[in-house]
Amino acid sequence: MRVRRAGRLPTGIAFRGFRKSDLEPCLRLVRRALGRKHEAVCREDLTLLPYGDLPFYPKRVLTEKGKVVALVCLYWHTYYPRNIAGIDWLVVAPSHQRSGFGTWLVKWSIAEAKASGRDTLFTWAAGRSRPFYAKLGFRRSRIIPREEDPHAVLMARKI
Ligand SMILES: CC(C)(COP(=O)(O)OP(=O)(O)OC[C@H]1O[C@@H](n2cnc3c(N)ncnc32)[C@H](O)[C@@H]1OP(=O)(O)O)[C@@H](O)C(=O)NCCC(=O)NCCS
Question: How many structural domains does the chain have?
Fold first, then answer.
């Protein structure tokens, strides 16, 4: 099953807002993909704030037969520089990787960020995801002043 060129999701795959019941399945995805340390941080990000669609932290999942197969969150920079948006916690289940779902979610993120008036999209790319982001036009960047993260590099692209 692959995402078709026109960008339509395959039959049986749904894209919807994050619900409280998605928390544990999403954390399992993060644990398997990135490890327990990341899982703990992700739990904070997904639970410290109320559930639902906060205007500055939209969260979405892809599901198949009701089961979460991917997660993506966005955050709008509310302080300088304000023209940028970030992709957070983009994770695709191993069973669904290399089928175009990650690309589909980045394209959705680009459209959302554009619609909210941003002109740049960034991400802290964990080691193994760098070729994926590079293929989508992201390049190493210093757009945000922050200490280097030993586990991830800041990558950004104009949108
Ligand atoms: C990175 C990730 C989101 C990519 O999602 P995906 O659905 O597998 O990506 P796509 O199928 O859209 O891949 C598109 C292209 O990106 C590149 N790519 C994707 N994964 C790659 C990998 N592991 N190594 C090298 N290139 C990769 C390939 O060029 C691929 O095209 P191809 O399959 O035709 O060769 C997914 O592998 C994942 O969840 N990884 C673990 C979590 C993670 O690292 N998230 C990012 C945190 S910053």
Answer: 1
Tell me the CA–centroid distance for residue 102 and ligand 1, in Å.
Answer: 6
SS3 content of the chain, % helix, strand, coil (to 5): 35, 30, 35
Domain assignment of residue 106, given as a range:
14-158
Q: Would residue 4 count as lying in a domain?
A: no
Q: Cis peptide leading into 81, omega within 30 of 0?
A: yes
Q: 95 in a domain, yes or no?
A: yes
Q: Digits of tens for pLDDT over the chain (159 positions)?
A: 888 766 789 999 999 999 999 999 999 999 999 999 999 999 999 987 666 666 678 999 999 999 999 999 998 877 777 799 999 999 999 999 999 999 999 999 999 999 999 999 999 998 789 999 999 999 999 887 776 777 789 999 999
Ligand 1 pocket, mutate which of 28, 109, 129 (most atoms under 8 A from CB): 129
CATH of the domain at 126: 3.40.630.30
CA–CA dist 136, 116 (Å, integer) = 20
pTM of this prediction exceeds 0.90 = yes
Determine the distance separating the centroid of ligand 1 and the alpha carbon of 115, expressed in angstroms: 25
